[in-house]
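> example.struct
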């Protein structure tokens, strides 16, 4: 009889621990704490999938993970060409699988990375070449400058893009 009682106690303890773990995971998922699907901060990683939301010309979400393109700057939605830049990015990624190599850095809620279509098209090069984003030499080292057009050179140049 004693072994049955001990077995029931173990089962209750296990279920209590399981419920507590479930509660803590639920709290972490809603409190801004890193979730299971988030890459670890400071660790480069790769994600792939379909774009679930385009925020603007240099930021979108892949499988609900926000990604900010490294080394370029697209105009804000309230700036000239901001909405056109967002619409162009939507057109580039619509129905396409993307692959993003994340640097391990974050800016606000967004992971920083370089993103490509499955066929290898560099999305940063594409949006700059369309004249709807600029090279950000502080972070790119001038990588995207050769792709700038006359229009992209007239876009706002954010102070954070200036080399130190």
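> example.seq
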């Amino acid at each position: 009889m004693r072994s049955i009682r001990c077995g029931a106690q173990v089962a209750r303890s296990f279920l209590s621990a399981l419920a507590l773990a479930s509660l803590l995971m639920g709290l972490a998922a809603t409190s801004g704490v890193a979730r299971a699907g988030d890459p670890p901060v400071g660790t480069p990683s790769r994600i792939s999938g379909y774009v679930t939301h385009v925020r603007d010309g240099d930021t979108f979400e892949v499988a609900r993970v926000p990604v900010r393109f490294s080394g370029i700057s697209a105009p804000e939605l309230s700036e000239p060409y901001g909405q056109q830049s967002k619409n162009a990015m939507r057109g580039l990624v619509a129905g396409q699988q993307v692959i993003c190599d994340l640097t391990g850095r974050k800016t606000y809620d967004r992971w920083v990375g370089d993103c490509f279509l499955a066929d290898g098209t560099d999305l940063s090069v594409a949006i700059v070449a369309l004249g709807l984003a600029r090279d950000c030499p502080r972070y790119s080292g001038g990588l995207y400058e050769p792709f700038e057009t006359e229009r992209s050179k007239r876009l706002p140049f954010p102070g954070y893009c200036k080399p130190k």
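> remarks
The first helix runs from residue 2 to 30.
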